[in-house]
Prior knowledge:
Blueprint: E1 3-10, E2 18-22, H1 30-41, E3 46-50, H2 72-92, E4 96-98, E5 108-112, E6 118-122, E7 127-128, H3 130-143, H4 146-153, E8 162-163, H5 166-179, E9 184-194, E10 210-212, E11 215-217, E12 225-230, E13 238-243, H6 248-259, H7 265-275, E14 279-286, H8 292-302, H9 311-327
Parallel strand pairs: 2-3, 2-14, 3-4
Antiparallel strand pairs: 1-14, 5-6, 5-8, 6-7, 9-12, 9-13, 10-11
Amino acid sequence: MPNYTLNTIDFKNGNDISLVELASALNYDGESWSTLYEDTMNCGPIKFHGQFDLKKLGTGDVASNLRYKHDKDRNNLVVSNTVQILEKISNSNWPLVITSYPREQRYKTFKFEPDGTIKVMNNGTRKEIVQDSFQINEFIKKYITTEKLLEIRESTKGARYNSYLADMISFIIMMNHHYHPEMFEEVVRKPSVFNTEKKSLVGSSPLRAFVNDGKEWIPKKGFDYLYFEEVYNEKDGTRFSMPKDGSIGKVYHQLKDLLSLDENGIKEMLRKFMSEYGGYKRFSDYWVNDVDDGLTILLIKNAYSYCDLTDSDKIIVDEIDRIISEIF
C-alpha cells in the first residue's frame, strides 16, 4: 500500500552523528509533521542528504521530492516543511549533501516489463544492456517473487513502467561523499519560494510560462515552487555539496557491485559507512509513484548477505529485515 513514512534505524554504537536522507516529498501535516520534525532535527547533530537537484527559477517543474502536483494545499505544505528543514540545517551549520543527478545525466533506464522481468536500457543508444538486465533480474529473484514484482510494478505506471532507480543512486552518493569527496563540489544557493500570486517589486510574478524546445511550461496557479537561486554574497545563501558533472559513471559501476550476489569491496564499504554513524533516518514514499524506495532497502540488505556479520552488523540487519517485512 502506498505510504509516506520516516524509517528510523538506531545503530546503538554510541556514535553521535546520524545520517538523515530526504528520499521523498515531506507530505505531512499538523501534529504528525511536528513529531517527525522533532524526532529528526532535534535529536543531535546530523548529516543531511537531499535527493533533489538545485533547479533555478525559469527551469520549470522542481524535483519531484520538493512538490506534490495533485493538490495545491498539499504541495504548499511540502514546500513549507522542506524550507523549515533547510533553514534548521543552515542555521546549525550541518553538512547538506545533494544526492541526485539531473535527469539528462542519468543514461540508464530500468524498464519493468509485463512478464515480471526488468530490462536495463541505454538512453543514448536506446538498446538493452543485456548484462545489466541479467544481473538485476537475478538480484530481484533472490528477494521477491515475480508476483510481488508485478504488484509493485503498478506504482511505476505514471512513468510508463520506467525507473531511474534514483534512490539506489542516492544512497551510493551518500557513501561517496564520505569516502570520495573529490567527486563533489561546493555551491552556495538561496532556497527561494515563488508563486504566481506573489508579485515582485515591479508588480508582476517572476514565475511565468515559457517555451523550451517547442514545449510550453505553465506554472500552476497558487502552487509554491521551491527554487535555488545564485547569490552575490555567500552569507545570503546555504552551502550545498553536490556531485560533479560526469561522476555518474562511477556510481553506476558501484551499483553493479552492490547488486551482485557475492561479497566485494563496495559491499564492505557500505557496511563500514553505516557503522561510522549513530543511526539512519530516511523519509520514504513506498510505492507512491515508483519502486525505488523498496528496492533500495533490499540493496542495503544485499550488502550484508555474503559475509560474517559483526554484532553491530546484526543490529542493522535486524532493523532492515523489520522494514522489509513492513513494506513488502
